[in-house]
Design brief:
alpha/beta, binds NADP nicotinamide-adenine-dinucleotide phosphate, Rossmann fold, 293 residues
Length: 293
């Protein structure tokens, strides 16, 4: 199949385009271009910004599917959640409709919700609405946190643990997550592509519900870091999160993440096998890649 992947140069995008190319698909990766040189040689790159719909429909022409992986987890400058995650997805869905694309596979996020208290999740929800209401046959995936080489969350956490003498956890660390491997997310996309539009929203996660404390423990064991852990009250972390997001290009903690902290990020333990027919990998058994970062 000929497949366009918007956001094809990001963490999920790189793994997905490699898996698509390996499976013999003809792949066009679309992004603004910061990491285009890392794409496999067989993958065509088209420069486009989803916040400006100008050449999107043209890039989708003749495609059997569009896979939309563009979103931001942190706002920076003019790139707001609303502009990239909602308006950008509206542009992708509209362009897919104009180009007559028969299947739009859209990556949302577990917890997507209309509640404006959580702007990232609210704009991910609005993006889903744009896809579902576009008239383009669709499949929506809502993964929990994704782990694997190049990930944002686990790698950054491993670096912070390695660099600091004491590990500080905001709150009691009991919030639950269901990490899913990047290879399994890419495999879900491949299965969705082969099956065709499901017209459903599939929430997917790995085989374990892990608390934040569990995740920190797994990372410490994987990288061999023997550190004490202390729990800090969430209000005490607010000034630190504000400082980090103001001065650091890639902050380990933001105010938005602190707000989302009490919300569990889990689904059924059999979500992947039930919807996609295979058993996903455990984070606990596959965290060794963090030793390389
Ligand atoms: N990572 C996770 O744990 C996780 C969990 C659940 C859901 N998700 C979802 O999975 C998707 C991919 O996430 P990711 O972790 O791969 O993010 P990422 O690494 O930040 O990649 C984002 C991609 O989007 C492109 N992009 C950003 N702004 C753009 C714009 N205005 N126009 C065109 N392209 C743009 C980036 O390339 P350029 O900067 O070169 O444009 C890059 O290719 C997102 O929808 C995210 O919400 C991720």
């Amino acid at each position: 199949m000929r497949v366009a992947v918007t956001g094809g140069t990001g963490f999920v995008g790189m793994h997905t385009v490699r898996a698509l190319a390996k499976a013999g698909h003809d792949v066009v990766a679309i992004a603004r271009g910061t990491r285009a040189r890392l794409l496999p040689k067989s993958v065509k790159f088209v420069r486009a910004d989803v916040t400006d719909s100008a050449n999107l429909a043209e890039s989708f022409a003749g495609c059997d599917a569009v896979i939309n992986l563009v979103a931001i987890i942190r706002e920076h400058g003019s790139a707001t959640f609303d502009l990239v995650n909602r308006v950008g997805t509206e542009h992708v869905a509209e362009a897919a409709r104009t180009a007559g694309v028969p299947h739009l596979i859209h990556q949302s996020a577990n917890g997507a919700d209309p509640n404006p208290a959580f702007p990232y999740l609210q704009t991910k929800w609005a993006g889903e609405e744009a896809v579902v209401g576009s008239g383009v046959p669709f499949t929506v995936l809502r993964p929990s946190l994704i782990f694997g080489p190049g990930d944002g969350f686990f790698t950054l956490l491993a670096r912070v643990i390695r660099l600091t003498p004491v590990t500080v956890i905001a709150g009691d660390g009991s919030t639950l997550f269901q990490p899913i491997s990047i290879d399994d997310v890419a495999q879900c996309v491949l299965v969705a592509l082969q099956r065709g539009p499901s017209h459903r929203v599939h929430t997917i996660g790995g085989p374990e519900h892990l608390s934040y404390n569990d995740i920190v423990g797994i990372i410490k064991a994987a990288i061999g870091a023997h550190r004490f852990t202390v729990h800090a009250p969430v209000p005490a972390m607010v000034p630190l999160a504000f400082l980090m997001q103001t001065v650091l290009p890639n902050p380990p903690l933001t105010l938005d993440q602190l707000r989302m902290l009490p919300v569990n990020n889990i689904t059924r333990l059999d979500s992947v096998s039930a919807a996609f027919g295979f058993e996903p990998e455990s984070f606990g058994d596959n965290a060794d890649y963090l030793q390389d970062y």
